[in-house]
Design a protein that fits this description.
This protein has 483 residues and is α/β, with parallel strands linked by helices. It contains 13 helices and 18 strands. The chain has a five-stranded parallel β-sheet with strand order 2-1-3-4-5, with helices on both faces. A five-stranded mixed β-barrel has the order 14-15-16-18-17. Helix 2 links the parallel strand 3 (44-49) and strand 4. The two termini are 41 Å apart. Residues 118-156 have low confidence and may be disordered.
Length: 483
């Protein structure tokens, strides 16, 4: 009798990495393995890592070391490291953390079964949309990184990854039942000075539209109500194949999928948002009027050093065009402060731009000096303290904007989806409007409601009754769509 292995997986980083984790879990389940949330109960532990910035690399190292302890003291007999850090530091990881048994880069997702150890049971019938408790997530305090150096130096030179999953690839969803991420493309062709992603993920490559639509249909059949389309640049979809109208066509096709309520676009790029895409969003009743547009800065001088193809004036015109063509649109962006050479005047221009635009959602990150990027040759001229101060100033400014805008919304009626109970009180529920993405945006907290009736995945009409920081308070008016 062949032994069935118990697999535990920790997924770190972005939703794009999460989809890779879901595929690995699906492949492991298809091969006959079992899944567990408990690290102490796992025969094999898998850590799917992130390596975008220093903080992410340190988290990855600490998590690997924490899981390595289970090989010394518990049931675990094999530790597998996957993802961006594995792609970037393959040899160094094996050399410095001998507990690691296998390292798989971003292009080796299908090799997870071989890395675990094939047990020969064959296809167990699990495909897109199957749901088993799929994710083991790190909790508690990570072990000390001890003598491990972070960041690990000298990433190896390797051929760029080419892997891309499709609608037939087994996948176990780690998200709540009512929403799922769909990766419509992989890789990136841009050469932003601060970013290592093209070297970790390879060149941009779009999935065929038929594959995406089939996956969406399968997810909807499993109860998914909200589809979140992701890639490194979602608006670049199809351009790598010479089809500049591909995304608009895809949105209109997905809008016809029965069972879906919301379709959300994440990770757009300012130079590839065209009028046909905006028209498709405006004409498709299921596509959320939500634009996630990481701009990174607003000073022309800093943008040029970042190798970003944009200017403050161009960004202002673009955002005005978006708001004109999509009334009521929610705008999300992110900025990097402390990029090499950023002056007080550059930062002041960024602050001015934010006051002028008034984004609905905004994130600010301090620049991380990453080896392997073209910006690494520049002097990292600003101290960590200056970077953190600028980050705080930017977020304090955004908080004042949001406070005023949120209070003006009191009394409005909105449609929202219920995500589940709030951690603060069992009789308070968490929800989101079409202008709020899961995990990254603020929430709507529902009071005066019956949690037994408003189960996760229900869509309701609600009245906004108050504002609490970035979040809104509301009371339900009617249930519109059951699960």
């Amino acid at each position: 009798m062949v032994q069935v292995m118990k697999i535990g997986l920790i997924s770190l980083g972005c939703p794009k990495n999460l989809v890779d984790s879901e595929v690995m879990l699906g492949l492991a389940q298809q091969a006959g393995h079992q899944l567990t949330r408990d690290a102490a109960d796992a025969d094999v532990l898998v850590v799917n890592t992130c390596a975008f910035i220093d903080k992410a690399k340190q988290e990855s190292i600490d998590t690997i070391l924490e899981m390595a302890e289970h090989k010394k003291t518990g049931r675990c007999t094999k530790l597998v490291v996957t993802g961006c850090m594995a792609e970037r530091y393959r040899g160094e990881l094996r050399a410095q953390i001998p507990e690691i048994d296998a390292v798989l880069g971003t292009g080796e997702v299908p090799e997870i079964v071989n890395a675990i150890g094939t047990i020969g049971i064959g296809d167990s019938g699990f495909g897109i949309g199957s749901r088993i408790i799929p994710l083991l997530r790190a909790d508690g305090n990570p072990v000390s990184s001890g003598s491990i150096q972070s960041p690990i130096p000298n990433p190896q030179s390797r051929a760029l990854p080419t892997y891309l999953y499709d609608a037939d690839t087994p996948r176990l969803l780690a998200t709540p039942r009512h929403y799922a991420y769909v990766k419509i493309a992989e890789g990136c062709d841009y050469k932003c000075a601060f970013c290592i992603i093209p070297k970790l993920r390879g060149n941009y490559r779009s999935r065929p539209a038929d594959s995406i639509v089939r996956e969406a249909e399968g997810l909807a059949a499993q109860g998914v109500k909200e589809l979140l389309l992701i890639s490194q640049d979602t608006t670049f979809y199809g351009i790598d194949r010479g089809d500049r109208g591909a995304l608009a066509t895809l949105l209109r096709r997905l809008n016809q999928v029965d069972g879906l309520e919301w379709i959300r676009l994440l990770y757009l790029y300012p130079t590839t948002i065209t009028d046909d895409v905006l028209d498709a969003i405006g004409e498709s009743d299921k596509v959320c009027r939500y634009i996630d547009l990481p701009l990174q800065h607003a000073s022309d001088a800093v943008l040029k050093r970042m190798k970003r193809p944009g200017t403050r004036g161009g960004y202002t015109k673009l955002l005005n065009r978006i708001r004109t063509r999509l009334p009521g649109v929610a705008l999300r962006t992110t900025f990097i402060v402390g990029f090499p050479g950023e002056t007080d005047a550059d930062f002041a221009e960024l602050q001015s731009f934010i006051r002028e635009v008034e984004f609905d959602h905004l994130g600010a990150f301090t620049y991380s000096h990453e080896e392997g990027t073209s910006a690494y040759s520049l002097e990292d001229s600003l101290s960590p303290a200056v970077k953190r101060t600028r980050q705080r100033l930017l977020m304090a400014q955004q908080r004042r904007i949001v406070d005023r805008v949120q209070k003006a919304r009191i009394g409005q009626q909105v449609r929202l989806v219920v995500d589940g109970p709030a951690t603060e009180h069992e009789l308070v529920l968490r929800g989101r409007t079409a202008g709020q993405a899961p995990d990254i945006d603020a929430l709507v907290y529902l009071t005066e409601c019956d949690p037994a009736e408003l189960t996760p995945g229900r869509f309701i009409q609600a009245e906004i009754t108050g504002a609490r920081g970035y979040d809104l308070l509301a009371r339900p008016l009617s249930v519109s769509v059951p699960v």
